[in-house]
Amino acid sequence: MKLTCLSKGDGFHYPPCHMLNLCGFRILIDCPLDLLAITIFSPFPYDVRFEASEYPSDVPLDAQSPTQKKQKLERQMTPDDLVCAEPWYKTVKALHLWEASLIDIVLISNPMGLLGLPLLTQNPRFCAKIYMTEATAKIGQLMMEDLVSMHMEFRRFYGPDDSSFPWWTKNLDGEEVPALLKKVVFGESGDDLGSWIRLYSLDDIKSCMKKVQAVKFAEEVCYNGTLIINALSSGLEIGACNWLINGPNGSLSYVSDSIFVSPHAKNFDFHRLKGTDVMIYSDFSCLQTAEVTENGCNSPDQDNNSTISDKNDENLAASLLDTEESLEELEKLAFVCSCAAESADAGGSTLITITRIGIVLQLLELMSNSLESSSLKVPIFVISSVAEELLGYTNTIPEWLCEQRQEKLISGEPSFGHFKFIKDKKIHLFPAIHSPNLITSWQEPCIVFAPHWSLRLGPSVQLLQRWRGDPKSLLVLEAGISSGLGLLPFRPIAMRILQCSFLSGIRLQKLPTLLSVLQPKIVLVPDAFNGRINHTEMKPIPMLTYSENKTLRVPRTADNPDVEIMAELASKLSWRILRQGENFGLARLKGELLMEGGKHRLVSGLEQEASSGKATGLRHWGSVAPETLLDSLVKMGITGSIEHSTGGNGSEDKCVIHITNPSSGFIETSDIGTAIITDDKNVASQIFQAIDGILDGI
What we know:
By secondary structure, the chain is of the alpha/beta class. It folds into 4 domains: 2-43 and 77-286, Metallo-beta-lactamase, Chain A (4-Layer Sandwich), CATH 3.60.15; 324-500, Rossmann fold (3-Layer(aba) Sandwich); 563-603, no CATH class; 626-693, no CATH class. The chain contains 19 helices and 36 strands. Helix 18 crosses helix 19. The longest helix has 25 residues, at 134-158. 38% of the residues are buried.
């Protein structure tokens, strides 16, 4: 097995991408877009920009990182540094270097990992099988269609541009260009230029989705009779999954960003990942947070590692399912709601650019309940070309929801609270900011959910332009986007800014406990985890590290694959216990070895062979010691003498046993075999029996 990490990603919106070579099949796991890279583009043309070079950054200098301070000393970026052109989109760096026709399988773990797939499937040589859950397929398709819809606004600004090369990069290679801009465009090593590509069309999306095999909840799919593939809930989002692959050479689990207890999606189903031969750990989310220090984990639960080896599996598993993380997330959401209420009470509006579907669903529910219980009469607008279809879809997939949401559906209630508030006209859905119904319904202050989180696409751009000078208004950003670069085109900005970081994976301090519960034979982790995992008290598990754009060869955990034999067939086999191996036996039959359902199966022609009445000769292996053979012959009443002959180099070449009684003959032994020569069939038969008693054979 070989693993190549094509990209370690950059948080929830840009998941990792891997290429796996398993059982001779090449498997691509996730195909995302780096949407953070489009922040280098200006959201509007030169003639509508703001004069902002004299304004300071909206981030205080003492709150900036050393890298930001260095950039500030070099030259502060201005809106004029941004690219004024129709955006191109950045794919996984090394993916365009792989031959599309050599990819056999594509596995998509969550909707964000689907966004770059149409760029791959539009290659005429692409012929791989694509697997993802039904929910991921539907939500991901809606997200791609919304992305294309928002992108069309740029074409209205700049006009169609059908060039095959990103011409704007020619202006970004000079010494006066800010280092941050160069890094995004060309990459740290300067070889990212080939990753930029034009966005796909709606037709490309439709063509891509026709090639997808959507996997139902708990469904097993078989690829080529060799690999059995299971999608197991990861808890990150509705329909997001981890992968379990069983094949003839063992089992493999792929663990992406996961949440043990989710308030909206089905919980992380880690129990079914127990005991796999290889586990690929691909949750990089903890590297985007401040939960680790130079010396390792920095959390209140760090001391729990010291007792891992003392707990049984049930207690360890129970410790992973505590609700503390869920309560923390709920507190964050409640804080966002309180800040929005404060702004509304002061006469200001709130713009929420968060697009994580699970977070949006919970915020809509909490905000509506909060406003209903207060005296504030503030409308909530959701502006997106796919808002109505996406929100409606969440009530049709109970199998991918958490237990509490499932119970609501069973009792006849909607799974999420937004259905009630939409019906009561407290939440208003509109496909675009210029929708006639929105214009007639508009009132301020209001709370608006609008894409895109990058602040370069969609209704959020126009609304941020409208409210940027209002100190009573609130902008809610998602963690991952740099507020400096993201807000650069809108400076000066007087709005209050709230940047939220929500749980998007497994916290690093829980990884030792998870590994102790799952007990894989080998675990593969990113090299960035070196020195950050406490190994001292966790159960011993071989651990290999992988690096970006490097191939890691994984040793086999078992030398011999298992073979399934029917009980009826096994009972008919004549087993011969070998002398040279303890508890080791062989049986001989005529048949065929097949590959079915990811397992070797033995289909035999034993009955046909037995009915033919033909005896099958024994096959022996090994060398015969002349002295041992002669002793056995003497016990049978056969006498003889041993003659040794040497070769030209002085070493023993062969040995001959001359038979003198009861009849003449000789036995010649050498490294290449043993020959019996005699005219007496009885003597020949006795000699064969003696050899059979010495050597192993079937």
